[in-house]
Amino acid sequence: MAPGCTLVLVLMTAAPSRTGAAPVPSPLGALPGARGCHMAQFKSLSPQELQAFKRAKDAFEESLLQKDWDCSSRLFPRTRDLRQLQVWERPVALEAELALTLNVLEAMANSSLDHILDQPLHTLHHIHSKLQACVPAQPTAGPRPRGRLHHWLHRLQDAPKKESRDCLEASVMFNLFRLLTRDLKCVASGDQRV
C-alpha cells in the first residue's frame, strides 16, 4: 500500500439499498463520532519500537524472579483471535485491550520499571489515539455488543476487579507482543479472513 493510504473499515448499516433488499456497507468514517480511521501505518512497528517493548518485557521477567506469584486464570487466552470477530468489532476489542494495557503499564511505570516503560507507553498512547478514531461512539441507548465481542469486553472490564495486581501485570506484559504483532496488525490491515 502506498504511503498516505488510509484504512477504511466498513460497517453494515440498516439502510436499504436501491432495491431495498440488503444492508449497504458504509465507511466507518461516515458514522457519527468517527473522525477518520488511519491505522495502516501500524501494520508493523519499527525494529526500534519492538526492541523497546522487548526490553520492558525482559525487565519485567527479571522482576518476576524476585516475586512469589501464582496466576491460574488467563486474561488473554491463546484461543482468542480478533479474526473471530466481525471486521467492525475488531477495533472495538483492540481499543478495550489497549486501554487496559495502558492502565496497567502506567501503574507499573511508578515502579522500578519507570525509565524502561517510557518509550513503550509513548508508542501505545500514539496507537490508542489513532485507534479511537476507528471506534464508533457508544450510544447511551440502543444495541449493546453481543456474542464474542460482549464476552471479551466484559472480561477486560472486570479484570482489574478480579485479578491480583501481579497477575494483571503478568497477563498484560505476556500479551504485549501478541497485541503489537497480531491484534494490531489484524486491525491495521483490515484482515478479512475469519
TrEMBL record:
Keyword terms: Antiviral defense, Cytokine, Secreted, Signal
Signal sequence, start to end: 1-21
Subcellular location(s) per record: Secreted
Secreted recorded as keyword: yes
Tree of life domain: Eukaryota
Main location: secreted
Coiled coil segments of this chain: none
InterPro entries for the chain: IFN-lambda_sf (IPR038326), INF_lambda (IPR029177)
Transmembrane residue ranges: none
Membership in a protein family: Belongs to the lambda interferon family.
Protein name per its UniProtKB record: Interferon lambda-3
